[in-house]
Amino acid sequence: MLRMALRWIVGAVGSILMLPAQAHHSFRAQYDSTKPIEVTGYVTKIDWMNPHVYFYIDVVNAQGKTESWAFEMGPPHMLEQRGWKRNSMAIGDELEVSGTRARDGSMSANARTVKLRATGEVLGAASSEGQTITQGAGSGSPPAR
C-alpha cells in the first residue's frame, strides 16, 4: 500500500515538473521562416530575463502610423557570449532589427540581428532559425507589456 502511494506521488510530481518543458515551443511552431522582417524603430521596453530576452520598439509603418513590435532573443547568458551587456540597448535607442515574423501575424518576431543606429554596432540575437531549445530557440508568446 505504501509503495503504491509512493509511486502515485512520484508520478504526480514528475507530471507537474514536465509542464514547463512541454510549454516550450520550437522555433517553427512560433515563427514562419518564409516571413523575414526588417524594421527600424525606437526601444520602448526591455525585459532582460530568463528564459528569453524580449525588447519592444515603436516602428512607423508605410502609412505613417506607429506600430509597437515585440522581439524575442535568446537567453541572457547566450547574448552575453555574443557581446551583449544588460545595458547594450536602452529605452529610446534607435535600432535596425532583422528577424522572422510570428506565424500568427502579430507584430512580434524572433530577432536575428540588432544594429544600434547610434554606433553602427551589429549584435547577434542568439535566437534564430535552426537552433535547439538549449541553443536559444523561440518559445511561446512574448510576456505581457
β-strand percent reads: 35-45%
Structural shape: globular
Percent helix range: 10-25%
Average pLDDT figure: 79
Strand runs, count = 6
Order of helices and strands: HHEEEHEEE
Stretches where pLDDT is under 50 for at least 5 consecutive residues are 12-23, 130-145
Radius of gyration: 18 Å
Could you explain how this protein is built, in words?
The chain has a five-stranded mixed beta barrel with strand order 1-2-3-5-4. It is about 20% helix and about 35% strand. The protein is built from three helices and six strands. The C terminus is likely disordered. With about 140 residues, it is of the alpha+beta class.
Provide the descriptors you would attach to this structure in a database record:
five-stranded mixed barrel, 145 residues, 6 strands, globular, alpha+beta, 3 helices, disordered C terminus
